[in-house]
Amino acid sequence: MYDAVLVRYGEVGLKGANKWVFESILLENIRIALQGLKNVTVVKRSGRILVQTNGGPNEVLTRLARVFGIVSISPVIIVNSEMEEVMTACSALVGFLRGKIKTFKVETRRAHKAFPYTSPEISRIVGGYLLRRYPALQVDVHAPDVTIYIELRAGETYVFFDVIPGPGGLPVGASGKGLLLLSGGLDSPVAGWMAMKRGIKLSAIHFHSFPFTSERSRQKVIDLGKVLAWYNQGITLHVVNFTPIQETIMARCPEKYRVTILRRMMFRIAEEIAAGQRIQCLITGDSVGQVASQTLESMSVIGSAIRMLLLRPLAGLDKTEIVEIAKKIRTYRISILPYEDCCSMFVPKHPATKPKLDIIVEAESKVDWEPLLREAIETVETLDIDATWLP
Ligand code: ATP
Ligand code: MG
Description:
39% of the residues lie in helices and 21% in strands. By secondary structure, it is α/β, with parallel strands linked by helices. The chain folds into two domains: 4-165, 2-Layer Sandwich (VC0802-like); 177-385, HUPs (Rossmann fold, 3-Layer(aba) Sandwich). Helix 5 packs across helix 10 (319-329), helix 8 (258-275) crosses helix 9 (296-303) and helix 8 (258-275) packs across helix 13 (370-378). The chain is elongated, with a radius of gyration of 27 Å. The structure holds adenosine-5'-triphosphate and magnesium ion. Adenosine-5'-triphosphate binds at residues 181-183, 185-188, 206-207, 284-286, 291, 293, 341.
């Protein structure tokens, strides 16, 4: 029945060059998200994007639901801007809904000012026609079961009833690039999703310590990357062999500062990789007070290892709120798989909750980290994950 999916996007606050950049990034992201689907073309029509589907739009709707910047979408019937054709299309929609609705109303928007009827006239004429065709139905202008929308333009008219909310936010890439520190846990994928929602194009970095952590824990992170790739229109995942650094920390650093120093080393490596790729910020899944390494004191000491901007999008969220988002974005089931990221023997019984920077710097000074960091960066494994994987 449907010919296309009409995509509406936010223009509030967008002017001039910004608007053009926003639109072209969104258009490109939609094209990438729909890659591989047959008989689908994406075109731009004055303030709207139209995805011509030529058949069932279900898969298109699923994929568009993951493209940030989209405010809402509607499957539409497209006809010539002629009264007869508009009435036939509206009648097809109501026929489709028959049995599910008792009342309706017709709402018209007319961009085509030369059309011989005004918007209220069109609504009235079409409404009358529908009442004659479907005598069991009634018009209710205040609280109808369904609203039939007619969007009349010079060349063509869109007829639809369904307005599905989109994910909102800004198209990824419109705000620049960020590097997500992706562990196998619940928090970091959600942090990445929130950054993408604000238009940050993600890359991800994962620190792996084989054989302390298993091959399956690495695969779990790749699977999380595949889900993030839906929203990010593909993702580059860097996997760092962290074993030599982790072993050195275990052998040479005071037990209670292990996690603090470990995180500082992660940040140093991430910052260097990010800088080489014109990435402007690092993103973590830290939430204030969640664990010892996420007190304000710890986060401050850990963050001071680098100069790059650090975003912690989950700072103010409770675990229950994070879990709720993880379920919604489909990372939850992967995150709760039992393959632990950090070996339990590494985490001390009594980690420092209020580390002091001078003491940490002193503890770090006992080791020449430079060659270890260099080796970790030089041996990084880089995976390009595309956006079309389905779980
Ligand atoms: P998550 O926070 O994702 O649930 P977690 O709770 O096991 O995982 P934390 O100990 O809370 O991890 O670590 C805080 C943050 O540090 C994580 O959200 C993530 O951004 C980063 N991080 C921790 N471990 C790793 C790792 N192995 N690789 C990449 N980033 C990591
Ligand atoms: Mg956490």
